[in-house]
Amino acid sequence: MDATSKAPLRAATLAARRALSDAQRREASGRIVERLLRLPELRRPSTVLLYAALREEVDVADLVAPLHERGARTLFPRVRGDRLDLVATTDLRTLQLGHRGVREPAGRAVDPGVVDVAVVPGVAFDPRGGRLGAGGGHYDRLLVELAAATTRIGAAFDCQLVPHIPREAHDQPVHLVVTERSVHRATRS
Prior knowledge:
Rossmann fold; 12 strands; about 25% helix
């Protein structure tokens, strides 16, 4: 399977996501955050990786305060070349525009090996944990650096859930996919 076979799937899923109104995205993001907070993996995590959403992505910012109340430290990614550094952040207002217009934290990078739970974006997911990203490979490279015990969760709108994501050797799956309507648990391999 080569990257060109992913292009039509990426285009179709991005179009479906763009077709959602801002109000639909806000409402669905709220439901996704509620589902995430009910997961046993997020009851008492020590360190959680989140992301600053682009306008059309699932917004997980409302996870920060409840996670801090549960005693968790939250990390956000910052692009450094073809890699992602992780930086502890408590106040999303301090994030600055970075790579491709994504809001990024400033500060010292943290070892990815300390992450208990990683909540990651994607263009599309399948129920078995397949993840299709934007094509830069940043999250695939990061997910390899996480500890084997780290729970990887894809946050997506229901329109981003597809029957099958073609996988290449470098593609990194997630253990759960959470949408506004469902939670899909993939078998850990």
